[in-house]
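Table 4 source record.
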Amino acid sequence: MSSLRPPAVPLVTHHPYFSVWSPTEHLGESTTIHWTGAENGLVGFAVIDGRPYRFAGEHGEIPTMDQTNVTVQPTTTRYSFRAAGIELEVEFISPLLLEDFEILARPATYVSFCTRSIDRQSHYISIYFDVTGEWCVDDRKQTIESNRISIPDVGPALQIGTTTQEIHGHSGDDRRIDWGYLYLLPPSDLTTDMIVSTTDIRDTFVSTGQLSQSDSLSGPTEVGDTPPVLACVFEMNVGATSERETFLTVAYDEREAIEYFEENLQPYWRRNGKTVTEMLTSAVADFPTLRERCAEFDSVLKQRCRSAGGETYADITALAYRQAIAAHTLVEYDDTPLFFSKECFSNGCIATVDVTYPSIPLFLLYAPDLVKGMLRPIFRYARTDDWPYEFAPHDVGTYPKANGQTYRTVDGELVLENQMPIEECGNILITTAAICLRDGCSSFADDNWKLLTQWAEYLVENGFDPGEQLCTDDFAGHLAHNVNLSLKAIFGIASYGILCDLRGDEDRQEKYLTLANQMAEDWTHDADDGEHFRLTFDRPGTWSLKYNLVWNDLFDLDLFDDDVAQREVEKYLEEQNEYGTPLDNRETYTKADWLLWAATLADDESDFEQLIDPLWQFLDETHDRVPFADWYDTDTAERSRFQHRSVVGGLFLKLLSHEKHLLNSQE
């Protein structure tokens, strides 16, 4: 059982718009939220032998059940509650199974319930559960309407959505969806009452133990301060030695997911003409099987992470798993999956290359086709006349509109001095090499060879001693002679050599690996600061996390002696604060993904654990109750804005390193 107190607990996690979290450890202590912090409410009551108790959400003075446990597993969050002689277990299961795109893309979360007697007496129990119309609006002034529908082989269900249905009517960072429809499907194995009403229905149920006999909302309604709810009630009576189990399904049909170069793309699950009714029918029917599959997946992944990095590491990755996936949207274009990230609470960009790069360890482990799906939009854009530059793009737009780069543009024109040319060229070359090594062939690189060659040459010309420019840590500002960015260029060039080898081009392989090797020798000399290596080539007495160095071992390149990594690890331990080692000597903040990558450089497992234990402590103690924040202060445990970003997929780098045989390295 994990003892980690998550800063926010994942409940419903599918994509940047269909997202619900609890910002408190006790599910009944607060209103649940969207990852942005906006309220996405749900409420749950249990009436036990005529007395009401609250187990989920915040409402009135109703006493809460005693929450005895909360456990966050990769796909499942499990709560245990007790009151009046019964135990109630509630699970939120989002079956994000990376090896099964059909299930991964299905926007349906299960909320399961199990009641049992703990005092060996019989009890009469009614469960009330609702979700609010807040889930399908961007702001409370918007108007929504609801419907009762019938799902084949399932029965009645409730639906709610905005009246305007302006698909892709807005883009940006701190935004929620206001098109598509939210669904609540009650259990088909129990007698169930359902209603569409305002939040006042909660008080009615608490006082009477029943729902009204008819919907109180029959037309368009502004969400306002008392939002409409989809509510259901079902009995779960138990005998002295019996237990009862059932489940609800909460789903969201966004209709169309991404605007891709002026073309609206449907979500992946809708391809081949699949309807929302068919999706919901399948979701309900698949629950028993998927629950078992998720339990098995969670157990295996936790054990793999435990073997790779210890119990603390297993806790961290369990919390990161669903977020890493749910900060993306999966669609299909031209019979090919595309996997679009959103830069959550960063700038809202879509398909950002330097967000893809840190996220890839998780996806290389389970689904390299998704890594290809991250890069394909970038390659397509870079081949157009709209991208006339020698270096690689940063992004292809602002979520959910992927129509061309928006990062650091003014009136549609790129501000060249504010780009990341070395960063993005290196990121794409390294990521492409990782994909091809995972595949054991060069086919993905072959499709994009002209661009990859162009970007490798750019790194040869400009990469060793970078001029003043931004890197992925753009919040730190411009920096010239960046030693860690130089590493990115060196491994980008070496990655191109690996790709040449996979293509059978031995001459070019030798040329680029020789170049990388010479640059590595020069780097080791020029960056040397005695017991460690500098932040910049020209600043003695400085230091930084050299997270890009991880590819030396992962790709079996041996460009750098083992002593380089060991000296760095010793410095990281020396500079460690209460909540981790800072990113560099300039500030006390760090990045969780880069801290984990830097820790993976350690040969000694105790050094690795010593470096990541403060990250666990940050998650456990931070006062910022938001989804996993990857940028935070190592002295105060305060979040530095970022939250719910896909980069937490990078926390699986230690597992990838532990299982690096998956990368068919050249030997």
